[in-house]
Amino acid sequence: MEYKLKKILIGMIIILVILLLFFLVLKPGLQKYVLNKQIEAQVFIYKNMIDQLQKTGAYQVPLGNQTLILVPYK
Q1: 58 close to 71: Cβ distance less than 8 angstroms
Q2: Half-sphere exposure of 24 (CA within 13 A, CB side)
Q3: What is the greatest pairwise CA distance in the chain?
C-alpha cells in the first residue's frame, strides 16, 4: 500500500515540476518567439507597402469584398 502511495506522490511531483517548467521557462520563450515573428511580419508588410507605393504610386489593401487604395499625400 505504501509503495503505491509513494509512486502516486512521485508522479504528482513530476507533473508539478513539468507544469512549473512550462509556465516559467517554455511559455515566456514561446511568447517572445511569437512576438518577434509578428514584428518581423509587420516590418515586411510596411517595407513592401512603401516599395510598391514608390514604384506604382498606389497600394491596394483588400478588405473583405472591397479594396482600399492608398496613394501618397503631397
Answers
A1: yes
A2: 6
A3: 83
pLDDT at 71: 87
Model pLDDT for residues 11-67, shown as the tens digit of each residue = 999 999 999 999 998 999 999 999 999 999 999 999 998 898 889 889 888 889 999
Q: How many CB atoms lie within 10 A of CB 65?
A: 5
Which grid cell sits at 67? 479594396
DSSP assignment of 9-69? HHHHHHHHHHHHHIIIIIHHHHHHHHHHHHHHHHHHHHHHHHHHHHHHS-EEEEETTEEEE
State the residue range of the domain holding 23. Answer: 2-70
Count of structural domains, the chain: 1
* The three grid cell numbers given for residue 2, joined into one nine-digit string: 505504501
